[in-house]
Amino acid sequence: MSSEQPAKKRISESTIHRLSMYYRTLSLLQKEGYETVSSKELANREKLTPAQVRKDLSFFGSFGTRGLGYDVNELKAKIGEILGIDRQWKLAIIGIGNIGSALVNYKEFSRQGFSIVKLFDNDQRKIGSNHKGIIVSDIKNLDKEIAEDGIEMVIITVPATVAQYMVDDVVRAGVKAILNFAPINLKVPPNVYLRNENMSMELEYLSFAIVNNHTPKNSK
Amino acid sequence: MSSEQPAKKRISESTIHRLSMYYRTLSLLQKEGYETVSSKELANREKLTPAQVRKDLSFFGSFGTRGLGYDVNELKAKIGEILGIDRQWKLAIIGIGNIGSALVNYKEFSRQGFSIVKLFDNDQRKIGSNHKGIIVSDIKNLDKEIAEDGIEMVIITVPATVAQYMVDDVVRAGVKAILNFAPINLKVPPNVYLRNENMSMELEYLSFAIVNNHTPKNSK
DNA sequence: ATTTTCATGTGAAATGGTTCACAAGAAATT
DNA sequence: AATTTCTTGTGAACCATTTCACATGAAAAT
Fold first, then answer.
1. A98 with B102: Cβ contact below 8 A
2. Exposed end of chain B (fewer CB within 10 Å): N or C?
3. Do A211 and B83 touch (CB under 8 A)?
4. Which helix or strand (DSSP H or E) is residue B134 part of?
5. Integer distance in angstroms from the first to the last C-alpha of chain A?
6. Between chains, do B198 and A20 touch, taking CB under 8 Å as contact?
7. 3-state class of B202 per DSSP?
8. d(CA A69, C1' C6) / Å
9. Taking CB atoms and an 8 Å limit, are A108 and B199 in contact across chains?
10. Measured on CA atoms in the order A167, A169, A171, A176, is the torsion positive or negative?
């Protein structure tokens, strides 16, 4: 008995990012009291084309009404579902330095359903300290505590020199996705998702743009 | 007398990001004692194809030696020049909250030649306080102080509700590029470069990936 | 009820980005 | 000096993404 895969078309990274943008804009439209919105209006707010908006959505179904547009609440719920943010995700932060401790208090995460439930460090001076109500745990207990809390994602904010070790630990503990802030190319097995957040890279892009008078088609 | 533009080909955002990656890897290769490197080796380290590496570089000139590869020091210098990071950039941070104050101490910025020289806030309790040797200035003095120091880029880490006002001020003060952390679509005139850093979006991507068992071609 | 207006959903076309494949040229080897 | 080995640089081919353009269908207006 062969279990058929549902012939999933490959969705581009850009489409998924735009879904995030639509989601955020739909939240705003809700607050502004809109009941429906057209692909045109949605596109205007993101500096995209209406066709782009419609095409993005069409990969996942047809959610609009011809002649009318999309129901704001409904579309938001639908995109939330697609993105998998129609629930709470529990996260841990590994490395409670500058960036790590800033992210503990980052409102935008909780607002989107990402809740930081555990903090880890290897520095004895930090272990036991309290950040926004969370006690920093010893990295040695990672395995046990990740399993206990059912944590599926972690944020890595340790120095580049130790990042790979932390990732190995975290992978062993069964984590499914990692957001990495260390400026290094990490290795993860194919069943673990990795994203790199590289803030210097963004500044370098700006530097390039100024120096070269760059006019990209569609910049972040 | 018409001033001819040098028919600059449009470089893609991805190419520029990859240049940043090459730059970082070349720094590492320097430390490891390599004198030359092939496109193949460079590609392996970034999980790219050798053709991609060569094509990226070819947009800017030909820097290698056939049969031998690229001189590590030379190529690094060349890419540094292209990216415009062969010099110091002076930056200010607007909004000294969680994220803002974390970035003041962010080593990776200074390492790449981005030096934070001014901090601004509108909160009287923060103004005058010392972060890593820098005194937080009143946002009211933005214009004067930006001009004084010749600051060309700023990082915006204020709440979304006030971000547009800050951007307007900063643009008026003559800033050329903005790295924005507020989760909102900002408006800037066409001669000002804007990049948005949206960390929730990265988590949402991971959420999508887990839920949909996503296998993108080439993920960040 | 009929017509007009509007905006979706989607194949097809156009554009943009990546990979292939190979000629060219430099260094190493015979 | 000639040959072999290696790796670059780049048009051409390929693949992915975006935009176009229009048939379709729902709502509003007559």
1. yes
2. N
3. yes
4. strand B134-138
5. 46
6. yes
7. helix
8. 9
9. yes
10. negative
Q: What are phi and psi of A121, to 5 degrees?
A: -155, 165
Nearest beta carbon to residue B185 from set A46, A200, A217: A46
Count helices and strands (H / E) in chain B. Answer: 9, 9
Q: What are the residue ranges spanned by the domains of chain B?
A: 13-83, 89-201
Strand-pairing partners, residue A136, are: A119
| CATH class name, domain B89-201 | alpha beta
Other residues' Cβ atoms within 10 Å of the Cβ of residue B117:
15
The domain made up of A13-83 has a fold known as Arc Repressor Mutant, subunit A (1.10.10)
**Residue from A27, A206, A212 to probe the interface with B (highest B Cβ count within 10 Å):** A206
Q: CA at A55, C1' at D18: how many angstroms apart?
A: 9
Query: Among A174, A153, A151, A178, which residue's Cα sits nearest to residue A164?
Result: A178
List per-residue pLDDT tens for chain A, 220 residues long: 433 344 467 899 999 999 999 999 999 999 999 999 999 999 999 999 999 999 999 999 999 999 999 999 999 999 999 999 999 999 999 999 999 999 999 999 999 999 999 999 999 999 999 999 999 999 999 999 999 999 999 999 999 999 999 999 999 999 999 999 999 999 999 999 999 999 999 999 999 999 999 877 667 7
Q: With beta carbons under 8 A apart, name residues in chain A contacting B197.
A: 197, 199, 202
